C-alpha cells in the first residue's frame, strides 16, 4: 500500500469549484508513479530495460467530487500479478477518512525492443508487494459499443498529448472524451478500455453514443478502429 497527501488546487477544479474527473484520474496516475519511483522501479528503471507498463483499462467510481482547498489522501495498492498482467487499486479519501472515489486498473508489462508483453522480473515482484483488493464493484474490462453514434470532428495528435513513452498518455484519452457529454452531466463512473497506442500526428475520429442515461465515446483512427473506448455513467 502506498499513499500521499494533497490539497485540491484551483487548477484542478471546474466552474462549480469541484475536482474534475480528469484531475482525479491524474491524481491516481501520479500516485502509481510516485509508488514506483519510491521503490526504485520508476521511469528510469523501465527505460533502462526498454519496458513500459501499458494501461489496459480503468474503472473509476466517484461518490463525490472534493472542492477547492479540501485536503485529501490518495492511495494505491497492487493486488495481483497474472503472467505479464498487473492489477492495481486506487482510492481518494477526504480529511474525515471517508472514501470519495475508488478505482480498479489493469496493466500490461510490454518490452519495446521485443515488441511483445513480458513477465515482471524478480525486482518488480518483490517491490510491488500485493495486498487484498479493496471493496468495490468490479466490472468487466471490455466495453460494448452501441449501434449508431454521432461522428465528431477529427483532429491530429500534437506533442501536448504525449508522455515519457512518446505515445498518448492514458489520461489524455479521458480528458478528450470528457469534452463530449452534455453540460451538467454528473459522472459517477468512468470505464476506459485501451485498444492500441496513438502517437504524434495520428488522427482521432471520435464517435459519440448515448445509452441508458450515459455516454460511450469511441476514439477511432481514420479506418474507424478504436484507439480507446471510454464510458461515462451518470447519476
* Tally of DSSP helical segments: 4
What is the terminal-to-terminal distance? 30 Å
Structural class: alpha+beta
Q: What is the oligomeric state here?
A: single chain
Strand content: 35-45%
Shape: globular
Largest sheet: 12 strands, antiparallel
CA-based gyration radius: 18 Å
Order of helices and strands: EHHEEEEEHEEHEEEE
Helix content: 10-25%
- In round numbers, the mean pLDDT is 95
Residue windows where pLDDT falls under 50 for at least 5 positions: none
Number of strands: 12
Please provide a written account of the structure.
The protein has 235 residues and is an alpha+beta fold. Helix content is 16%, strand content 39%. Strands 1, 2, 3, 4, 5, 6, 7, 8, 9, 10, 11 and 12 form a 12-stranded antiparallel beta sheet that branches. Helix 1 (21-38) runs antiparallel to helix 4. The model has no long low-confidence stretch (mean pLDDT 95).
Amino acid at each position: 500500500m502506498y499513499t500521499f497527501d494533497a490539497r485540491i488546487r484551483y487548477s484542478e477544479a471546474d466552474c462549480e469549484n469541484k475536482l474534475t474527473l480528469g484531475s482525479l484520474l491524474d491524481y491516481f496516475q501520479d500516485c502509481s508513479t510516485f509508488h514506483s519511483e519510491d521503490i526504485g522501479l520508476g521511469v528510469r528503471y523501465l527505460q533502462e530495460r526498454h519496458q513500459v507498463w501499458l494501461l489496459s483499462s480503468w474503472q473509476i467510481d466517484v461518490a463525490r467530487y472534493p472542492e477547492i482547498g479540501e485536503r485529501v489522501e490518495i492511495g494505491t495498492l497492487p493486488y495481483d500479478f497474472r503472467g505479464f498482467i498487473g492489477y492495481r487499486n486506487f482510492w481518494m479519501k477526504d480529511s474525515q477518512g471517508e472514501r470519495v472515489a475508488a478505482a480498479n486498473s489493469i496493466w500490461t508489462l510490454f518490452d519495446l525492443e521485443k515488441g511483445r508483453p513480458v513477465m515482471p522480473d524478480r525486482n518488480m515482484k518483490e517491490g510491488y508487494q500485493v495486498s487484498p483488493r479493496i471493496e468495490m464493484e468490479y466490472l468487466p474490462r471490455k466495453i460494448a459499443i452501441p449501434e449508431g453514434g454521432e461522428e465528431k470532428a477529427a483532429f491530429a495528435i500534437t506533442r501536448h498529448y504525449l508522455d515519457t513513452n512518446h505515445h498518448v498518455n492514458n489520461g489524455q484519452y479521458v480528458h478528450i472524451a470528457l469534452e463530449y457529454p452534455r453540460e451538467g452531466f454528473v459522472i459517477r463512473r468512468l470505464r476506459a478500455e485501451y485498444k492500441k497506442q496513438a502517437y504524434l500526428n495520428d488522427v482521432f475520429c471520435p464517435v459519440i453514443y448515448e445509452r441508458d442515461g450515459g455516454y460511450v465515446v469511441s476514439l477511432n483512427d481514420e479506418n474507424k478502429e478504436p484507439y480507446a473506448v471510454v464510458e461515462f455513467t451518470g447519476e
